């Protein structure tokens, strides 16, 4: 497959900049893989397609407030810092992106907070935009972390073209998020409300959690036409033995397995064995999935409508079939579905 095969014209007004009023009342397109049938519903209708003991796999990663705005020493120049990954808690070392990168050198100090109560020193240049920062703080670790996160903002995607607002702290987060480490929300899970989870339980639909800490690689531009030459960033993941046992049993007993989001698909496919079972894993994955690709475990995928040329669109097309997905994206545009993390949802079944 070529990068250009995933290009389409997306009207700017169809990119959702704010979430729906209620999580489970966004629109839902249902795409049937064994026919050309496409249905248009509301998300909370999704349980009509699942029965008792079918199994939903969620990603329970938790987004942290990764975007900081500070000032450079002496010049006072405004600098945006995006926290990517904590490297050494004891030394307060973080892998970050800085913008504008050209203004930052090793040894520079950056000041954060209304009263400049947090100071960081640039100690390494790793890429054209990347840096390693050491935050200078003498107090207890938890106190430092609380201060850092109180200064940070919710890292909503740049394509929303607006600053974060207080509402984003809750809505750019899944209700079941528990393992901190993501800078990009697994957006398919945003549609699940507490009421919908309760309805799943009443219907005896089973569910469980894996963790894949979503990074900025999902939004990084692909700069090669031949997709086999593209490498995506590694992301940390955890799949427990308990989840594997429950999912594998459900599959063996003929129940449907639903992956909630492309991050779940990637995690599953990283650990799948030749017998179609998933295995426990704690480590990293840089699994890049694009068509054609054969999936053995999941029977259904819940995902949002993704932007052109994105790796998320490629994973979706791998599961739903390239031609079918590109066709239904044109239907989505015609029917004015909303795209992006705060947009509408698709069930491929």
Automatic annotation (TrEMBL):
Similarity comment: Belongs to the QueA family.
Biological processes, Gene Ontology terms: tRNA queuosine(34) biosynthetic process
Keywords, in A-Z order: Cytoplasm, Glycosyltransferase, Isomerase, Queuosine biosynthesis, S-adenosyl-L-methionine, Transferase
CC annotations in GO: cytoplasm
UniProt-annotated location(s): Cytoplasm
This protein's name: S-adenosylmethionine:tRNA ribosyltransferase-isomerase
PANTHER family per the UniProt record, alphabetical: S-ADENOSYLMETHIONINE:TRNA RIBOSYLTRANSFERASE-ISOMERASE
Entry's EC annotation: 2.4.99.17
Entry GO MF terms: S-adenosylmethionine:tRNA ribosyltransferase-isomerase activity
Associated pathway: tRNA modification; tRNA-queuosine biosynthesis
Catalytic activity from the UniProt record: 7-aminomethyl-7-carbaguanosine(34) in tRNA + S-adenosyl-L-methionine = epoxyqueuosine(34) in tRNA + adenine + L-methionine + 2 H(+)
